[in-house]
């Protein structure tokens, strides 16, 4: 995707293949001498047994500009936590594995529960939120980056390109969102972005009219990427969604809190592949079925908060408009795949579109039935206001777990 197109809403930083990554890393090392850079890795224990993480650690062990790596470990027993600590010793940098299911961390969760501030759902959103809390408790980083632990095509240039826009003190960016082409196994991937988010945003523009928020989301080439970097000053007031709307939720927070010139997207890879979710057409609480519903709810909630009025008739019209647009875009994707020697299973793609159309209605009904639902985890500013010693105690718990097990 080596072009130089700018959309006029946010800055796009391309990879024009004119710069050696070693030169960029040298600059990052210079930046890191005055502004510490931390990487957060939200991780399920099962990912230690996958194909991606070994290579990710190998690549990261060569990165010299990181101040700290924080691994948020979910779904792990005590024995698995001990194994994870050994596994991540492959990292040369200062790092810590936070056992989110430890007795100490669960006790801290009960403490939040007594205040009415406990996160509602387990998952990536809570993992990221907890890791951000630990990062803030350390109070020694100026820049943070997050990426997933299932990236099969990972190399250290991804991180360098992701973090550079917010680490460079001469740049104005507070948030950088990674983007890339989702291809792998001779297939065009990225179904939820291609077949749900893109046509849904176009359909919303047609049904409810132009909105600045919709234009902002449409500016991102891959809005569902799990890779982003931020300057840490904005973290205390960041509202993290507790469901699978995490990536859309973070972009929504950037739109709410920052000027467009403070947000950019950066091309971090020519080809990106990771673990693929099943469609799970018969199970509404799993796979792309649940993900698509949560993403729709996240978009509808943000538009409603900005003054959009939704009714059952609006959602019915939106579903019909989306369905036609998604099929039209599928024609374009099929041509693009053919041009590049890639495969698309048209039957499976159309089944996905049919499911996503139904989930637009399902998400709309959930919103109408419970318009006051608060799906966000409380901000760390609110937690600190309610319990000023919580972050300090969380830091101590993580260190105690590290020492004991």
Automatic annotation (TrEMBL):
GO terms for molecular function: glycosyltransferase activity. InterPro entries: Nucleotide-diphossugar_trans. Its EC number is 2.4.1.266. Keywords: Glycosyltransferase, Transferase. This is Glucosyl-3-phosphoglycerate synthase. It comes from Shimia thalassica.
């Amino acid at each position: 995707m080596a072009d130089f197109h700018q959309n006029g809403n946010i800055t796009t930083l391309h990879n024009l293949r004119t710069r050696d990554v070693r030169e960029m890393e040298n600059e990052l090392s210079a930046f890191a001498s005055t502004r510490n850079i931390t990487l957060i890795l939200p991780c399920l224990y099962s990912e230690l047994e996958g194909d991606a993480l070994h290579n990710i650690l190998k690549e990261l062990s060569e990165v010299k500009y990181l101040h700290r790596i924080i691994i948020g470990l979910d779904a792990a027993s005590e024995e698995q936590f001990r194994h994870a600590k050994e596994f991540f010793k492959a990292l040369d940098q200062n790092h810590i594995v936070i056992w989110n299911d430890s007795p100490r961390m669960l006790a801290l969760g009960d403490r939040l529960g007594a205040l009415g501030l406990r996160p509602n759902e387990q998952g990536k959103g809570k993992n990221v939120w907890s890791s951000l809390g630990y990062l803030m408790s350390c109070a020694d980083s100026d820049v943070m980056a997050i990426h997933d632990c299932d990236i099969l095509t990972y190399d250290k240039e991804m991180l360098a390109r992701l973090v550079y826009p917010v680490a460079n003190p001469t740049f104005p960016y507070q948030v950088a969102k990674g983007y890339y082409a989702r291809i792998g196994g001779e297939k065009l991937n990225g179904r939820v972005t291609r077949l749900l988010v893109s046509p849904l945003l176009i359909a919303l523009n047609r049904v409810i009219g132009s909105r600045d928020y919709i234009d902002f989301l449409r500016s991102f080439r891959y809005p569902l990427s799990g890779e982003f970097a931020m300057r840490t000053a904005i973290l205390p007031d960041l509202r993290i969604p507790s469901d699978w709307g995490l990536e859309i939720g973070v972009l929504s927070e950037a739109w709410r809190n920052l000027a467009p010139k403070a947000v950019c997207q950066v091309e971090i890879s020519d080809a990106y592949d990771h673990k693929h979710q099943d469609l799970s057409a018969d199970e509404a609480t799993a796979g792309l079925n649940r993900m698509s519903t949560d993403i729709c709810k996240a978009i509808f909630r943000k538009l409603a908060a900005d003054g959009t009025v939704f009714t059952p008739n609006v959602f019915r019209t939106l579903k019909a408009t989306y369905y036609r647009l998604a099929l039209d875009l599928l024609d374009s994707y099929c041509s693009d795949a053919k041009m590049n020697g890639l495969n698309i299973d048209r039957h499976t793609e159309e089944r996905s579109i049919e499911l996503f159309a139904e989930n637009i209605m399902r998400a709309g009904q959930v919103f109408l039935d419970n318009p006051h639902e608060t799906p966000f985890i409380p901000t760390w500013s609110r937690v600190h206001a309610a319990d000023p010693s919580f972050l300090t105690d969380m830091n101590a718990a993580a260190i105690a777990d590290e020492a004991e097990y």
